[in-house]
Structure formats: structure tokens, C-alpha cells
Amino acid sequence: MKKLSVLCLAMLGLVLNLCAQTPANQLSTTNGGKVWASLWQQRSAEYKALCFQAYNIARLRLDEAIHDHKKGGKPLAVVTDIDETLLDNSPEDAARAINNQEYNTKAWKEWTAKGIADTVPGAPAFFKYAASKGVAVFYITNRDEDEREGTMKNLKTYGLPYANQAHLILKQGTSSSKESRRQDVLKNYNIVLLCGDNLPDFTALYDNHPTEQKREEVTRQLMKQFGSKYIIIPNPTYGDFEGALFNFNYKLTPAQKDSVIKSVLKVD
Description:
Blueprint: H1 2-25, H2 29-43, H3 45-68, E1 76-80, E2 87-88, H4 90-98, H5 105-114, E3 118-119, H6 123-132, E4 136-140, H7 148-157, E5 168-169, H8 179-186, E6 190-196, H9 212-221, E7 230-232, H10 240-245, H11 254-264
Parallel strand pairs: 1-4, 1-6, 4-5, 6-7
Antiparallel strand pairs: 2-3
Helix pairs in contact: 2-3, 2-4, 3-6
GO cellular component, one term: cell outer membrane
Signal peptide: 1-20
Pfam family, one: Acid_phosphat_B
């Protein structure tokens, strides 16, 4: 009887200890969402279908641009983002989120240095097709210069075309705008397609941290460009949509972010 009592007390202590730990170990709303988003990106056939659909449309639009290209005009080019457009970084996102950790540059750069990210479905085939038709590919990314080596390694692993210094255009300085880099490409090429997962990948109209309302207004104005010149790849995990939700205040605590999410989410 005494042994049984001791055992019961020990089990009770264990349960109470676990209960006490639960709030501390519970994922924030944002990280819980990122876990599910990463799972969807990694496991769902629907995600793959959407990516294939996007790059199938890209091929059709590229063929049209090649057909309409006038002799003597500037050579054609496709501009693409890298992360979640060409390379799939969901393992890094998932590892951080499942441990309830916020984004940090050090962990991100440790990941990119490995150069082991998988590709987004349909992406390699499309860019190789573009190159086979004589269309240049430029990789305009907001990865930093110290990520060049790992990024180049990753691109070359999959035999991606134009994986060279001139066509891999990384962020210079602190500005995340890609507009000046697109303009540099336009000096010598006619950009016929832009591929991305984040709206600033396409036009400067989304630069300078516009509000959610402004982003929606611009998107409605440009609606005919999507599927025409702009090819967007699904990314529910991160991006300016998240920044706009929090008014681009990156100092918010997880609890404050959770509060914002709950205040704007439609539940009835």
C-alpha cells in the first residue's frame, strides 16, 4: 500500500510538472501557423499542383513572347526570385517554428550556406526550357552577398542555367527593393516574365511597406498582369503579407502578434 501511495504521488508530480510546462512550450499562433504552412508546402499534392500550374502558364507566356519578339530587338530575359520561387526552404522554416523560435539572420545564413535546399516543383524545368530557347535567366534575390557561395552551390546542384556571378544578383546595402536591379537588367534585355512569391518581386509599387489596403488596391489595378507577365508562386509561410499585417513593426513580441492575428481574423 505504501509503495502504491509513493507511486501515485510520483505520477501526480509528473502530471503537475507537465501541466506547468505546457504554457511555456505551447507554440505561438504565428509559429503554429508556420508549422502547418511548412507541412502543406512539403506534403500536399495541392501545393505541387499550384506550382506546376504557375510554371506551365509561364511556359505558355514565354512561347508567346518568343513568337512576338522582333528581330534586332533587345534579347529576352526572365527575372526570378529564389526563395520559395525556385528553392524550397521549408525545412529551415519548420525547424525554427516547431521550436517556437522567431526568425533570426544567423540561423538563416547557416541554412543557406549549406546549399541543400530542394527545388520548387516545376521551377528547374521551366528555367532550363527558357535557356534552351535562348532566353537569359536572372536571379534577383534579397539574399546577402555573404550568401553567394552557398546560393551558387545550390543552383549548380540542380544544373540551373545562368548560374554565374553576372546573373546571380544579390541584395546590395540595406534596401530590400529590387527595382534598381530590375532596371539594370532592362538596360540590355527585354524582361518578358517575372517570377516570385512576394509581390515586391514584380514591381516597385509594392515597395516602401504599403498598408494591407494599399497592397490590395495595387493588386486589383494589376490583376491582368498576374498570369501574363507576373507569375506568382504560393508561399503561405512568410513574406510582406505578414509584415503588412503587423504594420511592418518587427519589434512586436509573439504575444503581440498573436493579439493582432486574433483581432483581424474572421471567425463568423
